[in-house]
Amino acid sequence: MGKRVLIIGAGGVGRVVAHKCAQATEAFSEIAIASRTLERVERLVASLPRRALARRVDADQPDQVAALVRELKPDIVIHVALPYQDLAIMDGCLQERCDYLDTANYEPPDVPRFEYRWQWAYDERYRTAGLTAILGCGFDPGVTNAFTAYARKHLLDRIRTLDIYDCNAGSHGKAFATNFNPEINLREVTAKGRYWEHGRWVETEPLSISEDFDYPEVGPRKSYLMFHEELESLVKHFPEIERARFWMTFSDSYLEHLRVLGNVGMLRVDPVRFQGVDIVPLQFLKALLPDPSSLAENYTGKTSIGVLVEGEKNGRTKRYFLYNVCDHAACYREVGAQAVSYTTGVPAVAGAMMVLEGLWKRPGVWNVEQLDPDPFLARIASMGLPWHVQER
Ligand code: NDP
Same domain for 163 and 290? Predict the structure, then answer.
């Protein structure tokens, strides 16, 4: 029997999640979408091939989330609003006894430091309540965690080094724009870099380390070392990993804009008094930049994202790259979204299906690498994200 899903967030990723849930008629019998701006939810609902409910919610307020869950009685909440709402939505789900899944870990609004500790602290309460919470089930984090678990299960007896490579080789034709929420994206990119080596974190200046990497279907691209949230959970759950790093490509033009915006103070996250009101420069900048979902229509090119693992198999050193390539224009034709939203939204829906089908239904709070990667990776492939393994 189909299940009821409540999607919170109606941005780029929310759009993909809603369309993919709507396509999965057998898995989801009822769909409800809630977000801060009702008109946006209504526009999204109107674009779907089948009926869905539209609601307004301020998901910063646990009481509002709980009231919504009480009213709609979903079997699972897929949270694709912003990381700031993670804890309030986890609280609301706990109160009304509903499973939970998100794609990004909690970050306090006034400190650009995303960490899992706040959400891991819910483990005991979710366990006791018999509820499942899946953290970070987008592409990275999400599929990258499942690739790592798959490599450990099938390809290597031990993982020595892990490098996650994320390339968006697409072009949206705008002078400067971010591919997902600008505030979250710019906070992430301008933060200090961090990687794991021999049991400790090594901190680097923002985007100060780069190397060329040969991306499937894209070719060699300069990639910059930065911290990304899945590193934290992966080194915790695979303590054998000696070094773990994350790399992302940026165009020279993007980096130049970033440098100038940073120099003039537009990336600050603390309030600045302006004509009698407090303004957070980064939030103001977000209001000026293109809405990420508006980039989709004219986006061309591909994303190529994967995990390079090196380790031992039967005493011999082996190296594999597990990856997916996704085409922006093809995503737009299918669901009206670009590939960055698509590669996030498809795994979120596949993860929710894993919970609802009982394959990932385990009381507690889980990162994706702690769960069986096989059915999940098979599902994302059948839902539009085929993936491949290359021996390198
Ligand atoms: P958008 O900015 O496009 O959409 C965010 C949505 O959340 C909007 O609909 C917004 O409402 C809503 N929202 C914001 N605040 C609240 C609130 N207080 N209550 C209710 N709704 C709220 O972001 P994206 O769709 O691009 O990204 C969504 C999430 O996915 C983010 O957390 C992002 O970090 C994550 N992500 C994860 C990736 C991964 O691979 N794991 C990759 C890319 C993104 P409104 O319309 O009013 O603004």
Answer: yes
Nearest atom (ligand 1) to Cα of 180:
26
Residue 69 belongs to what domain range?
A: 3-139+338-385
Assign residue 54 the CATH number of its domain. Answer: 3.40.50.720
Of 41, 47, 64, 82, the residue with max ligand 1 atoms within 8 A of its CB, to mutate for a pocket test, comes to: 82
Per-residue confidence band for 331, with pLDDT thresholds at 50, 70 and 90: very high
- 207 φψ region: left (φ > 0), alpha (ψ -120 to 50), beta (else): left
Single pTM value for the model:
0.95
User: Is residue 37 lining ligand 1, measured as CB closer than 6 Å?
Assistant: yes
Which residue in 290, 17, 286 sits closest to 142, CA to CA? Answer: 17
Q: How far is the CA of 187 from the centre of ligand 1 (A)?
A: 14
Q: How confident is the model at residue 188 (pLDDT cuts 50, 70, 90)?
A: confident
Question: What letter does residue 138 receive in the DSSP assignment?
Answer: B
- In sequence order, the 6+-apart residues with CB closer than 8 A to the CB of 183 are 82, 282, 283, 286
- Number of domains composing the chain: 2
Structure token pair of residue 64:
């509002």
Distances (CA, A) of 97 to 45, 76, 362, 372: 26, 9, 14, 24
Q: Which atom of ligand 1 is nearest to the CA of 14?
A: 25
pLDDT of residue 191: 86
Does residue 328 share a domain with residue 301? yes
Q: What is the rounded average pLDDT of the residues 296-301?
A: 94
Position 109 scores a pLDDT of 76
Residues 109 and 147 grouped into a single domain: no
Ligand 1 lined by 311 (C-beta under 6 Å):
no
Provide, rounded to the nearest whole percent, the portion of the chain with pLDDT above 70.
99
Residues 236 and 207 in one domain: yes
Check whether residue 68 and residue 132 sit in a common domain: yes
pLDDT score of 70: 97
Q: What is the pLDDT of residues 123-177, one digit of tens each?
A: 999 999 999 999 999 999 999 999 999 999 999 999 999 999 999 999 999 999 9
* Token pair of 293 as six digits: 């979902």
Cβ-proximal residues to 259 (8 Å cutoff; 6+ apart), any chain: none
The length of the chain is 392
